[in-house]
Design brief:
alpha/beta, 14% strand, globular, single chain
Length: 378
């Protein structure tokens, strides 16, 4: 059932995964008319903001791996995209342990000023052990990584909002430190937005204590609703509110059978060796937790072909079916839908022309009646 805390009157926000790594968004040999070049991404970013997207999330990979043999740095890449756009907000993914929070805070201030308030961060606690050990950095136990993330976020927020900031933590020690200038002033925004992901109990508790946004991997209705309830309880216990983003891979076609045929082709043409390598690498991220609630803990092979479980959200069908399903997620607490696509330029434009208008019509119905007319989500 939808969560009672859902906020139907606020329009859903939409984000897209920036294809700043090679290989596209699915680990498959199916044709993906998507490029990871900067010129392609500049064109895509302008198209996306003109198609109704408010955010873009740059991926973070350092080591050549699996279906991402080549990758651009998300911070530098995002700054370039910020200068190429006018309204789009760029969410930069960053790892504690590979960034110092004060350095990221200073970088973020400059990017925020250049873009007039369009910089945000997604703090990634870490799932790829080889990236840390290959760079000579310690690989912490799962819950310790989230303890470090919490301190990292506290330092970011503190340096963005307080002069003479102090923190005596287990991972970071900040002594009477001020950053000047401060981030670009935006009405109603105390500092650049802080996103954080992770499905585990540790991740949910950290989000409840310190994050502005909680990102969920792809989930069905029940799985997403359970996460929303849990994180909201942690946030309420700390006198806070948290907003929710949900990952989904979108395949819109004229008929449901056509869309499902595309999904079958993606999975049938999966790069088995790459998917299995990814599976082995991420198993520790979820199944190593004491309660088995971590990222990818219950992911099957077909789920991992889209490496953030995007197929599980079920945004596959006609524009009408997808729009109704998106609204059902909104009723369960989603504030933002993060999307990946097979052919980015074509699919982003198609989303803006054919799916988003239906979503907005259904939102208007939801505002008037409490339930959209003719809901058919399955």
């Amino acid at each position: 059932m939808p969560t009672p805390e859902a906020t139907p009157h606020e329009p859903l926000k939409f984000a897209y995964w920036v294809p700043n790594v090679s290989g596209g968004l699915v680990t498959s040999t199916i044709e993906q008319r998507t490029e990871f070049s900067y010129d392609y991404n500049k064109r895509l970013a302008v198209l996306a903001e003109n198609s109704g997207f408010e955010y873009a999330l740059s991926q973070v990979r350092y080591a050549s791996s699996y279906s991402a043999a080549e990758q651009h740095d998300p911070a530098a890449f995002s700054l370039g995209l910020l200068t190429a756009t006018e309204r789009l907000k760029l969410i930069v993914a960053a790892h504690p342990g590979l960034w110092h929070p004060a350095i990221l805070a200073k970088y973020g201030i400059t990017a925020d000023i250049i873009s007039e308030g369009r910089f945000a961060v997604n703090i990634v606690s870490g799932w790829f052990k080889d990236e840390f050990t290959g760079l000579g950095e310690p690989w912490l136990e799962h819950d310790e990584r989230y303890r470090r993330t919490e301190e990292f976020i506290r330092v970011l927020r503190g340096l963005w909002t307080q002069p003479n900031f102090e923190l005596a933590g287990d991972f970071y020690r900040i002594r009477d430190f001020s950053l000047r200038p401060q981030p670009h002033p935006v009405p109603g925004r105390p500092h650049p937005e802080i996103f954080q992901g992770g499905n585990s109990t540790a991740a949910r508790r950290v989000a409840g204590r310190v994050s502005d946004w909680y990102f969920s991997n792809g989930k069905d209705f029940d799985g997403f609703s359970e996460q929303v309830r849990d994180v909201r309880e942690h946030a309420a216990a700390n006198g806070r509110t948290v907003r929710f983003g949900l990952n989904g891979f979108l395949i819109a076609r004229e008929t449901e059978s056509e869309a499902k045929a595309v999904l079958r082709e993606i999975v049938d043409k999966a790069d088995v060796a790459a998917v299995e390598g990814f599976r082995r690498s991420v198993q520790q991220a979820g199944k190593s937790t004491s309660d088995g609630k971590g990222m990818w803990a219950d992911s099957e092979f077909a789920d991992l072909v889209q490496y953030n479980d995007g197929f599980r959200t079920g945004l596959i069908g006609t524009p009408e079916q997808i729009a109704h399903r998106i609204i059902e997620y909104k009723k369960r607490g989603a504030n933002l839908i993060l999307l990946g696509f097979l052919h980015y330029l074509e699919d982003v434009e198609h989303f803006g022309r054919h799916v988003l208008p239906i979503v907005r019509e259904l939102e208007a119905d939801l505002d008037r009646t409490g339930d959209p007319v003719g809901a058919t989500a399955r």
